[in-house]
Amino acid sequence: MNYDNFLNHLHQNSSSSQCTSDPDLAWLPPGLQQFEKEPELTPESTGLPDYLFPDSAPKRFEEKPEYDKCPLCFKYFMRSVIEEHVAECLDSADKPAGSVENPFLVDERTDSNFFTHRMEFVDMEAERRREARRQEEAENERLLRELLLQEEQEMKQRTEQSMLAKSAVTCLSCRTELNLGAVFFLDACGHPFCPSCLHKMIMANVHVNTPSRIACPSCAAAVSEREVQELVATDEFDAYHRAALHEAVQNDSSGKLIKCPNPQCGSVMERLAPDLGAIDEKELGANGQPLSKELLVHKSQFRFRCRDCTTEFCAGCNAMPYHLGFTCAQFFSSKTAKHCRFCDAVIGPDVGMVCDRPECRDHLLQSCAKTLPCGHLCCGVANESECMPCINAACVRDVGAQTGEDFCNICWVESLAAAPSIRLKCGHTFHRKCCKQKIDGGWPTPAISFNFATCPLCKEPMQHPALESDLAPLVKLQEDIKQRTIVRMQIEGLDKEYESKDASTKAKYPRPEEYGLHVFAYYMCFKCKKPYF
């Protein structure tokens, strides 16, 4: 009789109030074969847990289906701990009966069904462990076989390499006998060569920009790019790529590939069809004249800017920068033709030094007509006692120094060579007419100031013999204001205040009158033309 039958038997015999003996209970201990009738078996009356009673246990576990029943002790446990509990039951199965707290568990172990279930469970657990052991042994055996196979393959490879190292092969280029391991076999034909011979052949074709001719010296089979990369250094492989790009551009009959003419760049780009409908017909050339339709179309087709080095060039003749205002043929002719001294326009061989433009004719009258020792014309003004240094780009040696191709830093419209120029005492060069216009413009505000008569680059006062007549009234006015400032500082007590200023203020205003001009504001009287405070 199992535990459930035992509880049912107790309920069926609970109506009898006398002690009774039931032959079906012979499997129980003698003390439990006789029992008295009790009014009702409940957890409160027996002191046992409620899950041991059929009326309460099923209802309880119907509400909580996450519970499961132990196959050994028939107790209910949460499924998360049932396996751990079964292992404990297996360990406690061999303990004495008195060591188990539950008396029903001790009694149930005398039931044949209980021991049958227990043995079945033990056999299943043992079989599971034996199966896990067999799987582990099989996995270990597989790993051992793989390890032995790998060692066998490595040994075979070492043996083959040793045999190859002892073999001798002749290079088909230099006829030198080398070990088999030191010879390079081409993939396309399998011919053996020493790496140095192949390297010389590759670099000889790279230097003449014919990488497509890199082939086997014996049968002319092509050498792959991967083989070239194995035989040359990294910088040499980059040169191989540049040569391949150059060759592709040279062999491009469609004209869609363009190479940047900058020697430090050499980038390759694709030519796209220009949008002739987006041409700006009001664009001006370098000479300030509107460009013709032919020149505008030529610019849209051949003017390019490199995306890597930002060099602007002509794709037709590789001129840098692009010859705006000329076609390639016109530009080539203009390079050999005679040019105007100032505007660089092409003039006839029988014409003088300048073109017919009035501005160029006026510049010629104001400029120096002397030739410098270097052979270039002086870019200074007429009647100078000493010519200014040559500003031709070929003669300027100092890095960052101004050349005739640089724009004037006052007008920012024409180059220095496009008009008579002067070199100020500070060493900077400007157009003489620009300096004169700057001085004649005077101070820009109602308050009198003298910054307009300073060098735009270094802020030093302008000084040059060609500007003396223009600067004379300004110098006189400046001396007058300085005297007035000194007197005003004494009246206001600023002379003593200046003495107490820190070193930074005195460094900015080295003299007291300069500090006074900074504090005071003077204006010019429109009637008497004299300054007042």
Outline the structure in words:
- The protein is mainly alpha-helical.
- It is built from 18 helices and 18 strands.
- It has helices spanning 3-12, 30-33, 43-46, 57-63, 82-92, 103-108, 112-166, 195-207, 225-231, 234-250, 293-302, 328-336, 358-366, 432-440, 468-492, 494-499, 503-508, 512-519, and strands spanning 20-21, 34-35, 67-69, 76-78, 168-170, 177-179, 184-185, 192-193, 257-259, 268-270, 303-305, 312-314, 338-339, 346-347, 421-423, 429-431, 523-524, 531-532.
- The radius of gyration is 55 Å and the shape is flat.
- The relative contact order is 0.03.
- The model is unreliable at 14-22, 31-38, 56-64 and 94-111 (pLDDT under 50).
- Protein structure class: mainly alpha
Q: How much strand?
A: 5-15%
Distance between the termini: 130 Å
The chain-level mean pLDDT equals 78
How are the strands ordered across the major sheet? 1-2
Radius of gyration from the alpha-carbon trace, in angstroms: 55 Å
Summarize, please:
The longest helix is centred in the first third of the chain and has 55 residues, at 112-166. The chain has 533 residues and is mostly helical.
Strand and helix map with partners:
Elements: H1 3-12, E1 20-21, H2 30-33, E2 34-35, H3 43-46, H4 57-63, E3 67-69, E4 76-78, H5 82-92, H6 103-108, H7 112-166, E5 168-170, E6 177-179, E7 184-185, E8 192-193, H8 195-207, H9 225-231, H10 234-250, E9 257-259, E10 268-270, H11 293-302, E11 303-305, E12 312-314, H12 328-336, E13 338-339, E14 346-347, H13 358-366, E15 421-423, E16 429-431, H14 432-440, H15 468-492, H16 494-499, H17 503-508, H18 512-519, E17 523-524, E18 531-532
Antiparallel strand pairs: 1-2, 3-4, 5-6, 7-8, 9-10, 11-12, 13-14, 15-16, 17-18
Helix pairs in contact: 15-18
